[in-house]
Amino acid sequence: MSKLPNEAELFKKALQVGAVYAKKRAYGEIEETDSVKLKVEFIYKVLVEDKLIQPLAKENISDPNMRHKLALWLSRQLPEGHALLKE
């Protein structure tokens, strides 16, 4: 698992975009008081359920790996040349 350029920023944006997506798909809303770990797990499961990302192998499911998957997902949604994709 190689780090993406600007992975932390991509991850933060993925949480925002994922929360909007989950709400539009009627999976529920993320509360401000929810922990980041809970948000990550919720959005990861929503994206896996809708087959937008490939699930991690059971032995590889962890918070850092889910964060990486979310950042990778968002990086593929952004147009080429986007500021978050530049090193």
UniProtKB/TrEMBL annotation:
It holds the Pfam family DUF5062. This is DUF5062 domain-containing protein. It comes from gamma proteobacterium HTCC2207. The lineage of its organism: Bacteria, Pseudomonadati, Pseudomonadota, Gammaproteobacteria, Cellvibrionales.
